[in-house]
Amino acid sequence: MCAAVAVECESVPVTLPPGELLELLGWIDIRSKTCKPVLKNAKKMFKSAVFNLQEANADQVQEFLNSFDTVLSDCDGVLWINNTAIPGSPEAMNYFRKMGKRIFFVTNNSTKVRSDFALKAQELGFIAEPEEILSTAYLVAHYLKGIGFTKKVYLVGSNGIGDELKAVGIRHFGVGPDQVKTDFKSMSPSDMDPEVGAVVVGFDEHISYPKFMKAASYLSNEECLFIATNTDERFPKSSSIIIPGTGTLVRAVETCSERKALVLGKPNDYVRKFLESFGFDPARTLMIGDRCNTDIEFGVRCGFQTLLVMTGVTSAKDLEKMRNEKTPPLPDVVLPKLGDILNLTPS
Ligand SMILES: [Mg+2]
C-alpha cells in the first residue's frame, strides 16, 4: 500500500491519502509532486513529464510498452560509448525486437556507412541490419539522390559520407588532409571546380583553414547547396577530454560563408519524412536518446514519445535544471540506463 504523498497544486500544498493517490495517478507527476495530466492520454501517456519509469507500477510499464510499435534509438551514449556497449543496452533493444517492435538506429555520426554501423552493432551484441541504420551519411546521399542532384559535392567530412555518395552515383572530393601552406591565401578562382553544386559538412578530423576557404568560396555561389549532417557540439564524454563535434565545423562554415546550412540529422525532422515511406505512426513511435537538445528535441518535433537515458551527454544535473526552469524539450520518461527497462518488464 502506498503511503500518503504530499503534492502541490497551484502552490497550495495538499496531502492525499493512498486511495486518492492511486485514483489520481493520471493527473500527478509523482516525482515532482506537482499536478500534471501525465497519464491521461494513452498514446502520449507521459508527455514531457520527465517521469522516472522506475517509479511506474507494473500496469503502467506494460501500458507504456504497448503504446509504441516503432523504436528509434540514438547510438553513442545510449547503446554504446566508443567501442563498448553500455551494459544492458543490447538486451533491451533485442527485447523490443522480440516484442515485435520495428527498430531503427538513428545516429548523427557521419563517419561510417550503414553496413559498417550494422557490423559494429552486431559485434556489440545488438541484432541489426544495414537497412535499420539511419546515419547522417546515408541521409545526405538519400537526400541528394532524391532531389535529382547530378553535380559534384565538395565534402568537408569523411569516407562515411563519401562512400554513401558513391553508392548512389554522386561524385565528390575533399576527404582527407588539405594542409595549410605558407601561401594559403593565394587560392585563385581557377583553383575552384566549376562542377561543384553542393558543399556537405560532416565530421572531419582533418579540418583546416584551406577547407574553410574552399567551402565558403563554393558557397559564395548562391545556387550551390549547403548541407550539414548535424550540429552536435561535442561527442559523449568518457573522460574530462572534450572532443568537438560536427556542429563546431558547421558553425564555422556558416560564419565564413554567411549562409545557413540545411541540417539533415537530429533534431531536424528529415528522418521523419524518410520514415513516412515505411507508413509508420509517429504517435506510436518511441525515440530513445541521451541528449535533450538533439534526440529529445527531435522526438518532440516529430510527435514521437521520448525516453532519455542518463548514460551520455545530458546529465542528471542538466536535466534537473531544465526541469526546474521548465526549459523544453523535456523527455516523457527517463531511466538511468536503457538496460534498466528489463528490470521493469515481466521475464
Ligand atoms: Mg548520443
UniProtKB/TrEMBL annotation:
Entry-linked InterPro entries: HAD-like_sf, HAD-SF_hydro_IIA, HAD_sf, PGP_euk
Cofactor or coenzyme needed: Mg(2+)
Cross-referenced NCBIfam families: HAD-SF-IIA, PGP_euk
Name of the protein: Jg25371 protein
Active-site residues (renumbered): 74 (nucleophile), 76 (proton donor)
GO cellular component, one term: cytoplasm
Classification of source organism: Eukaryota, Metazoa, Ecdysozoa, Arthropoda, Hexapoda
Co-factor remark: Divalent metal ions. Mg(2+) is the most effective.
Residue numbers binding Mg(2+): 74, 76, 290
Pfam family membership, one: Hydrolase_like
Residues that bind substrate: 266
Molecular function as annotated in GO: metal ion binding; phosphatase activity
Keywords from the named record: Hydrolase, Magnesium, Metal-binding
Signal sequence range: none
